[in-house]
Amino acid sequence: MSNRMWGGRFGGGPDDIMEEINASIGFDQRLFAQDIRGSLAHAEMLVKQGIISPQDGASISQGLHQIEAEINTGAFNFSRALEDIHMNIEARLAEIIGDAAGRLHTARSRNDQVATDFRLYVRDALEHIGTQIHTLMGVLTAKADAHADTIMPGFTHLQPAQPVTFGHHLLAYVEMLSRDAGRFHDARKRMNESPLGAAALAGTGFPIDRHMTAAALGFDAPMGNSMDAVSARDFALEALSAAAICATHMSRLAEEIVIFSGPAYGFFNLPDAYSTGSSIMPQKRNPDAAELIRAKTGRIIGALGGLMIVMKGLPLAYSKDMQEDKEGVFNALDSVSLCLAAMSGMMEALSINKDTMHAAAGSGYSTATDLADWLVREAGLPFRQAHHVTGQLVALAEAKACALDALSLADMQEVEAAITDNVFSVLSVENSVASRSAFGGTAPDGVRQRVAHWQNWLKENG
Ligand code: ARG
Fold first, then answer.
1. The whole model's pTM is what?
2. Distance 47 CA to ligand 1 centre (A)
């Protein structure tokens, strides 16, 4: 049998394989609530404009509400033969209210319908993700506050470079996440225009009111070009791009959790609730949640690349290729949301080994830069020469297998006569971090000021 919705000119139905490749109901049923919302707004507008009768409008609305209840309770029968969520709902509407169902699709096409549904869905998801980012920022800010004075090694090339405070390290992620929140917020603002009423691609001759449906669905305005309205997917690309960048940030933190919770570093204690054991090695405590955040970032980035590649070859306006936009977006937005939840829970429960971190901060001659700076400031050496002298002192300490501040003054003066006892005041990790007090640096007081800044920001943007 040919398709009831579009099969007028067809003699027979599709091959089974055609049906399988063509159907999207397996994944786009997720859009049912948005589809019904869009149809309700469209029907109400058609009545107000005198395009359909109030009686038909009323039965359409009553039928759509019944369908929503059926889907919510699991009583609805999704059919692959009906391809997608739009035709599944419309076919059921016809069963419930009869011929009036056929009037709902006046001045509308599945092309503007799906574009509208998908925008509504992505808009909700962006808002939810924005809230979750704020939650994670709050968790990290509170931890940074508690650890404004906690000292750890700061790394470059994953080699100990200069001591930093753990609070400062955590706040670096808060800065990244605040920009992520901004990206989601901007994407939401830009995407909030309504495609509904663009019809198949050229617009419609029916006297519809697109401003009315746009307002009813919470859009700021109707989209200004019908061809753009049905075929633009940059809103989805932007959402994916924001998701990919945000996930990349979380993945870097996840990588640090993996490294620093391992016995080689022993900085972090993974909470029981966010780690797993091994079925064969009883001593193991594995950072699975962090590893999965790191890995899911791969598929989120993949979804962005995937949709870019789908879109880049498409002429205007709609092509069925666009049906492939949904699974990647659903999966990526679900994943970033799950990662945000897991990261928040894990970081909230994470405890740290202060002594281990402190000892590591002092290793690797991490205050060598402070020594060079002292030579510039107190002994008047040009920085390049100070760098060279410090290098000699590091080599001396290395030869004696001791820390820089364990060298005697006599030893130091043999290398550079201008060194005085006062040099020892900058060789401790505490003095090192305290001295980095210029704006944006790691000094504990600076960390506390930035914590206050973010706490205010979260209150104002909460
Ligand atoms: N299921 C389709 C999609 O997701 C709906 C639009 C179909 N339009 C069309 N002209 N075949 O893109």
1. 0.94
2. 25
